[in-house]
Amino acid sequence: MNHFVVAIGREFGAQGCDIAEKLAEKLGVKLYDRQLVEEAAKKLEMDEHTVQKADEVSAKDIEGLKTTYGVGNFYLSTQVLDAQADIIERVAQNESCIIMGRCADYILKDRDDCLKIYIYAPFDVRTKHIAEKYDMSMFSAKRLVRQMDEKRDTYYKYVTGNRRGEHDGKDAMFDSSIMGVDGTVDMLLEMINKKFG
């Protein structure tokens, strides 16, 4: 198989992480997700906890950091974004892999060897999955899903200028509730083999 990168964006609760893990295992390639935080921490010579906090800041909060916590914290967040973008580009250049989230679809938009995927599911399906996964009430799960959607939407908009769930810039979008994790993985494998095999 030729060199390839799969950039996967996902809605919270749509089982994108489970899909990415199984896909990486079947393809025999590395999955990059939280590892990007570790790499960014090394690159910036900072402790991982500090970088993790900066990585989790939403776009609204990034702007607020300028006035609330001082310019230093704002620049820390933008430094983390820049460091992660550099790492994503380096990883994509050097190895076939799967990259989860962190606007990788946008960062790698000009690469012909990158397949840009978006995983979504209906709100009620995602809420039920989160309630079961984290053993919480449906009320709490709904609130968490809404919060994570808003956070990821504003983060993606801040970094890319685009809306997260739009088809522009994506090669394919999958409703994971239709085929489930294994079925979605199978469809992705077929696409990857056809494009890069």
Automatic annotation (TrEMBL):
It holds the Pfam family Cytidylate_kin2. It comes from the Bacteria. Gene3D superfamilies: P-loop containing nucleotide triphosphate hydrolases. SUPFAM superfamilies: P-loop containing nucleoside triphosphate hydrolases (SSF52540). This is Cytidylate kinase. It comes from Butyribacter intestini. The lineage of its organism: Bacteria, Bacillati, Bacillota, Clostridia, Lachnospirales.
